[in-house]
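Entry 14. Ran structure prediction on the chain below.
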Amino acid sequence: MVDRQALTCYNLRMNKASKIGPVGNSAGIVLPKDLLGASGFALGDAVSINASPGKIEIVADDSEFERQMKVAREIMVRRRKALRELAK
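Output, structure tokens:
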């Protein structure tokens, strides 16, 4: 059975309201220290940011995945005609 008090306490700690503010010509969000610590991230960590409608996701940077995607994109450019034929 779920302890509702513990769940409420967890939600209060992890769901913090914040505002997007100006940072030079860009925008930024200030992350509270406890939220940053709970996520497992620290200052200076490399991250990837994925955006979709109504949601921004911050994940640990996976340079191996990025390397593989770069190779895949190069192959798609070189083998464009063959991939078009295979897609039929």
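The longest strand covers residues 47-52. Will compare against last week's run tomorrow.
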